Amino acid sequence: MKIFVDSANLDEIEDALKRGFPRGITTNPSILSKEKKGDFKAHIQKIIDLLEKYGYDIPLSVEVFTTDPKEMISQAESFVKAFGRYKNLNVKVPIGWDELAVIRELRQRGVKVNCTCCMSFNQAVMAAMAGANYVSLFIGRIRDTGYDAYSIVSQVHQVFKEWNYPSEIIAGSIRHIHDINDSLRAGADIVTVPHKFFKPFVAHPKTDEVVQQFITDFQAWMAPDNGAAVKTEPAVAAAKAEQPSAPRVRRRVPAGSGRR
Fold it and tell me: Which of 12, 16, 100, 113 minimizes the C-alpha distance to 61?
């Protein structure tokens, strides 16, 4: 089970890296388009710099932004040239007939490939047969078509296991927290998750309640016992009451004193 961060936002990525759980980063052209305009390669380099700053050596997926197969290969090579010192770079290539040839060519050149935009069992299988290192199934978008996304993930997982394919299944297009849980239960090797889901993913109202109870109880136990002095007063009074009283001595009145 692995969790990837599906983001190109530097603050979001760093926020996740500080917490130790990411096992990869995925980006795509739409995600990048949400960031402040600037140099594309410079932005990817900043992501790599963050990974290195926090001591990570995890997959980073960068997607081509063309539909022309020859241009895809050219872009992939430019990515390798620009970011090749980061050995865990993966080039994202969408599934398609011509794109299968792109995947094969890149793999022959030693470029790691994440085949993205898979919506069906057959697309995932074909991508794996072409040599993709990762096969990304889009859970939310598959569900939009009326199909059972988790059934597809489960079927692909079973076939990869039976055929000993090394390709790993990435579940993407996550829209709800339960998508994360259900994708993992269905057999996804990886779920790539938008940053907004991470905090609620580890939250639970009962956890907050119990933690607060633990703190409150301990603070009460550690506090000075202000009632101690009040409690001793009755004890002192009781002790005094229990002490034997001194015997009374009768004074002898001398004869003729006039007192009677």
Answer: 113
Q: Going from the N-terminus, what domains does the chain have, and what CATH number goes with each? A: 2-201 (3.20.20.70), 205-237 (no CATH)
Q: What confidence tens digit (pLDDT) does each residue in 192-247 have?
A: 999 999 999 999 999 999 999 999 999 999 998 865 544 445 554 555 555 555 55
Sequence-ordered list of residues with C-beta below 8 angstroms from that of 13, at least 6 positions apart, any chain: 5, 7, 25, 47, 50, 195
Q: Enter the pTM of the model.
A: 0.85
Residue in the block written with tokens 């079973």: 158
Distance of CA 258 to the CA centre of its chain: 106
| Angle subtended at Cα 25 by Cα 20 and Cα 30, rounded to the nearest 5 degrees | 140
Which one, of 66, 172, 74, 161, lies nearest residue 114 by Cα? 172
Longest dimension (CA), the chain: 144
Q: Give me the pLDDT at residue 230, please.
A: 46
Tell me, what's the pLDDT at 147? Answer: 96
Which residues make beta-bridge pairs with 5? 25, 193
Which residue in 94, 161, 157, 158 sits closest to 130, CA to CA? 94
Residues with a catalytic annotation lie at 92
Report how far residue 215's alpha carbon sits from residue 85's, in angstroms, rounded to the nearest whole number.
48
In terms of C-beta density within 10 A (0-12 exposed, 13-18 middle, 19 or more buried), how is residue 251 classed? exposed
- Backbone angles phi and psi of 57, in degrees to 5: -130, 75
